Each structure stands twice: as structure tokens, then as C-alpha cells.
Amino acid sequence: MKYTVLGQSGLLVSRLAFGAMTFGTGNMPSIYKVDESGAQELVDRALDAGINFFDTADGYADGQSEEMLGRLLGSRRSETVIATKGGFRVGQGLVQAGLSRKHLFAACEASLRRLGTDYIDLYIVHKTDPHTPLEETLEALNDLVRQGKVRYIGYSNWPAWLAAQAVTIQRERRWASFINGQVYYSLIGRDIEHETVPFAVRSKVGLTVWGPLAGGFLSGKYTRENLKDEQNRLSGFDFLPHDKEWGFQVLDTVRELAEGYGATPAQVSLAWLLAQPHVSSVLVGSSKLTQLEDNLRAAELQLSGADLERLNELTRPAALYPNWFSAATQDTQVEEALRR
Q1: pLDDT tens across 92-108, in order?
Q2: Residue 155 appears among annotated catalytic residues
Q3: Separate counts of helices (H) and strands (E) for the chain
Q4: Hey, how many other C-beta atoms are within 10 angstroms of the C-beta on 37?
Q5: Whole-angstrom Cα distance, residue 296 to residue 82?
Q6: Catalytic residue among 3, 32, 60, 321
Q7: Domains in the chain, start-ordered, CATH in brackets?
Q8: Which of 27, 43, 54, 155 has fewest C-beta within 10 Å?
């Protein structure tokens, strides 16, 4: 296993992280489907492979994921980095959701109890909240750090402009600053390259990736013929938007490359992400040990420069305004002088 520090911090994390979203049962059986014994097997294997970074959230299976992960890490908790998230609705009351000071304090305390720990290594706000002032959210996070309940903070699923505004406020006021952005990113979902990646690189915010296989689509187990089968996860949780036919065209190339490496489509897709310099860690979530074993081998797969470029060109997102305007109007005379 390889390791890196997360963002502008000294927090050492494995390049592959274990996502515990599948732990528990609930109203989404296509997602929440791993019982305690199965979860123990997955956690033990992840630890044995050198993974020290575990991710969960208070909204996963009504908190069951946190409870199970805390129990299963047990005595090895001090060896690990636990990330959990708050912000989604956790009750019927109007105030039991969002990023207000009231809810974040309550959500953090509840996560601490479920995880069976007295501190959270990385506390992540799970979504945006248009009804709470940004300063209120950031001050509440700072206070959780100052109280010792949280060691580091991050955000997930925020637009780049909001994250940039937040980091500016945090640094101006000398509040605890975001070291992490947890974002959706995959070969067929490269939207973050427009704005989030440039922001993160410039601000030294480490990016961790959720959905690296696009909800399982890039695992290669789906075909044009079986995509709509009721037993498929995507038939019950088709959350990530992309053109399926274009996705299958990408997958055809991924399968071809995988065959040449003696690898699987999932391993090639994960290896492409791990090769991106702006990616700190990639979350791999599994419901079966065989899936985890397959994903773990991606850490050992080195794609050639030519194959990386082939995948880059095949899936490169179209430039958005004003990015395309800026690229088209660069001063070529200055660029040429700087290259001499």
C-alpha cells in the first residue's frame, strides 16, 4: 500500500481508503446489505492490506454504518484514520439536518457515540446548506476542532467557488481550515477538472474520491443487455448521471486495456484515478471480499504513459466557459518566450 499526506496537513493516509457505506440494512437494500460478520471480514482484510483510512457517514443506514465500523475497528482504532460526515437529514425535526451550528454539534456528538470514540480524525460536511450562513458553519467546525472532538475538517459535494470562499474565510480568521474535499470522480465523470481540481491544487486541499467506479458501472459487470436486470445495483440506485451508451464505449476500451495488463476493468479504472496527481486517496466500497480483493490489486497496477493518455483523450470533458475562452486567448508570444 502507498501513502500520502492529506492536503496541507501531516495526516498520513493510504492511497486506497475503505468506504463503509454498504454496512447495515435499511430501505435501500441495493446499497445497505453487509451484515456484521461480512463487515468484519472486509475490515480485517483492508487493515491487513495496509489501508488505514476508513470512511463512513451518519446518513448511511441510519447510523448503522458508523456503529459497525466503530465496533469492528475495536482495539486498532488508534492505528486508523476515521472520516465521517454530517449534514443530511437524521430525523423528522426541521433542525435535524443541514449545516447549522445546532445540527453540526448534535450530529458530531451522535457520530462520536456511534463510533465509540472520543474524537473523529476527519469530520466532513456532506453537502451544501443554502439556508445557513457560511460563516456559521465554518465557526461551528472550528469550535469542534478547538474542543478536541474533531482533528481535521473537510467538505464533500461543494462547488469550487463555495469551497474557495470557505478556505479564504478560514485562513483570514485563523480558523481550522479544510484539508480535504471528498468528490465524485471517475473515468466517465470528470466534471471536477473544470474548477474543483484547479482550486484544490492552488489551495493545497487534498482530494479524496467517492464513486470511482461510477456506482459499479466501470467494474465491467454490466453490459448493454443486463443493465436493466432487477438484480443489478444500478436498477435500484442509478444516481450518477452519464450517457450509458457513451459509457459502454469507454468500457470497451477499458476492457481492452485490462486484458493487456492481465487485470480487470475495475483495476484499470482505479489505477487511472491513482495516477492523477491531484488525487490523494480513492474510496473503495465493497459488499463482498472478492470485490475488495479485486480493488486492492489496483494499488499495484501501473498504467503506461501511452495508456493513460489514451484514457485521458477518450474521456476528456468538453471545456466550459470561460475556460475555453481563456485557453483560446493565451498570449502565444509570452508562452513561447517562457518555454525557451
Answers
A1: 999 999 999 999 999 99
A2: no
A3: 13, 10
A4: 7
A5: 19
A6: 60
A7: 3-339 (3.20.20.100)
A8: 27
